[in-house]
């Protein structure tokens, strides 16, 4: 299927995703960076041996209020006969991905994927040498890319994310995620997941929770690796998605990815995605930006024990520090309303002993 | 939210569901019925005691080719070290609902729900006394309902299925499903599930399979009771769905069901729904009509061990007999192509010792 620009026309409600990516492009030219000073974190001492009677399920979390809030909640909902007991089947927990389970600076990792795809596809598109925004991507001129605006970003997404079959796309993602390196750390992107959150996922599952991802990122960009990296199977990943179309090609059925957005799983789209895919309200939600606000609101406003948590990026040395004014992962309303909504706010710098697994 | 007819305008691709329902209305006036002669089935002898060494996991299945095909497949994919071994995480099985897990005659059970809802809502709509298709429903004049055509059915669906919140709708479905009775058997609809298929679901799960429903019926019509009746949780139910919108009403967030179809989970929509919600290809699929053809095709055309099964309604005495010319659950292409595609065709009359659990 050839790329046809006219297919890239998208409906108004689809713009959110592209705007998100657009702001991310801006950040590639500067913004908060990772300083060499985070390297000493690698030399962190081994964690103290756990007490023999109860191994600590969250060893990378410092013994502070955030950790206590988590374990108190889990103890309450799992105590059979207790007033807040929740049957295992209803222990649904939803996690944002970008900025909550892995880093999202200096730009969403999926944007790096899209830019790398432009480079990989360039030999088949000689016209891109003179056509923005592709020219800008190929020449590393991110200002030109940003100047192409929303329309330019839409063209990049359409050219790199659609027109192929779901199986072709899965292979492309798998190849990229196992080889591409982050511009600052030079690590695989999947190395840049948060060790304390991996422990949290495992802890919840050990207590009968079913863990889901509910991310603004593309669902087909995540599913190929979430089982391996997070222990979350494809059927428990909710995300933004393109429309797909069933076709039989020479006797072989395929699903073709169309240049039309089917669902934007961000902001008010998150409770909608949860409803479509999970079909019941989670009892715990974890996010890091105002894109997660409605998910946290939806999850924590129902009756019974509920838990909401925001990861606040406060660690400019070991990761990044950003919140109210960031173009990526902006967090303002969440910070303002967390206290009155009894949401736990994780102070990354204070609460986490290590950030990434390779620092253990 | 008041019902506004102008909201009922639906896109072209949404018509399939309503056409399905329309054909069902026709059948309420006649078509294949259930004869009193099925009653002796209640007196079926108790099944023979299983051999002590290996209790039969499918006691309601006669020892014929269909049963052997099922157990052979399960043995192959679960035999560790064998050539066809499939890791448990990939043992995904998808089941159609109407006509596959429960009966669908003389009309889809969800249509009975819609008609009952019209009656329940009538006091709030005095104008319905003179307005078709509502007048026809209230007077039991199904010919008039059918004469209102597709537009009339769309109005019934919009009036009975949308405009409320997801929680309100869940309560309505739950109340109905636990009280409404089938017009012929006078049983609860959830009593009219197929005992052999309940055994099959349990057998697959006992062998590490994850079982999903993939139905043309409304997902919110099924989720309130599938755990109790089939052992399938809400997050493993794929179906047709209305668009929903997130709103905060006086500080309380709700999801409002809009009169706009989001996904029609029928025919080529089934592989699409599977991809959206499950994100990987199942290894086994179970259906009963040509609405399941593409799901069976998608599932069984991939590499590795695959299993496709069609329930053929051949039992006019204990259930219903219909296939090629039926307006409901039409089955023609599936019957024609099953042999060359190696799909198992269950002859309900020959293969099943009992149909419903209350006949055990």
List keywords for this structure.
homodimer; alpha/beta; 7-stranded mixed sheet; 13 helices; 7 strands; globular
How would you characterize this protein structure?
Two copies of one chain form a homodimer. Chain A has 13 helices and seven strands. With 360 residues, chain A is an alpha/beta fold. Chain A starts with 14 loop residues before the first helix and ends in a 9-residue tail after the last helix. Chain A has a seven-stranded mixed beta sheet with strand order 4-3-2-1-5-6-7, with helices on both faces. The N terminus of chain A is likely disordered. The longest helix of chain A is centred in the first third of the chain and has 14 residues. At the A-B interface, helix 9, strand 3, strand 4, helix 10 and helix 11 of A face helix 9, strand 3, strand 4, helix 10 and helix 11 of B.
* Shape call of chain A: globular
Distance between the termini of chain A: 46 Å
Largest sheet of chain A: 7 strands, mixed
Spans of chain A of 5+ residues with little confidence (pLDDT < 50)? Answer: 1-47
- Determine the fraction of residues in helical runs of chain A and give it as a percent range: 25-40%
Q: What topology, given as strand order, has the largest sheet of chain A?
A: 4-3-2-1-5-6-7
Q: Residue-averaged pLDDT of chain A, rounded?
A: 88
Strands of chain A, total number:
7
SSE string of chain A = HHEHHHHHHEHEEHEHEHEH
């Amino acid at each position: 299927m050839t790329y046809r620009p006219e297919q890239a026309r998208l409906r108004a409600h689809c713009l959110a995703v592209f705007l998100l990516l657009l702001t991310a492009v801006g950040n590639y030219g500067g913004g908060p960076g990772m300083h060499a000073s985070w390297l000493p974190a690698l030399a962190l001492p081994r964690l103290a041996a756990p007490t023999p009677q109860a191994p600590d399920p969250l060893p990378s979390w410092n013994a502070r209020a955030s950790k206590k809030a988590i374990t108190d909640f889990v103890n309450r909902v799992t105590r059979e006969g207790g007033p807040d007991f929740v049957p295992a089947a209803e222990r649904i927990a939803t996690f944002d991905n970008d900025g909550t389970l892995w880093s999202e600076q200096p730009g969403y990792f999926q944007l790096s994927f899209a830019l790398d795809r432009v480079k990989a596809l360039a030999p088949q598109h000689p016209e891109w040498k003179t056509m923005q925004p592709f020219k800008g991507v190929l020449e590393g001129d991110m200002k030109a890319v940003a100047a192409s605006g929303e329309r330019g970003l839409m063209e990049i997404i359409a050219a790199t994310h659609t027109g192929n079959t779901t199986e072709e796309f899965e292979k492309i993602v798998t190849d990229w995620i196992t080889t591409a390196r982050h511009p600052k750390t030079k690590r695989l992107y999947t190395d840049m997941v948060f060790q304390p959150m991996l422990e949290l996922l495992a802890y919840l599952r050990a207590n009968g929770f079913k863990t889901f991802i509910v991310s603004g990122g593309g669902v087909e960009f995540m599913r190929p690796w979430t089982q391996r990296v997070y222990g979350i199977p494809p059927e428990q990943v909710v995300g933004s998605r393109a429309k797909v179309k069933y076709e039989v090609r020479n006797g072989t059925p395929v699903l073709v990815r169309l240049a039309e957005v089917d669902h934007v799983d961000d902001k008010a789209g998150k409770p909608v995605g949860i409803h479509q895919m999970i079909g019941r309200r989670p009892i715990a939600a974890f996010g890091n930006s105002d894109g997660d606000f409605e998910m946290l609101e939806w999850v924590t406003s129902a009756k019974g024990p509920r838990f909401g948590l925001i990861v606040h990026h406060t660690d400019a040395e070991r990761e990044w520090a950003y919140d109210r004014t960031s173009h990526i992962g902006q967090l303002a309303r969440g910070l303002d309303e967390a206290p009155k909504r009894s949401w736990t706010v994780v102070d990354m710098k204070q609460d986490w002993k290590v950030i990434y697994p390779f620092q253990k």
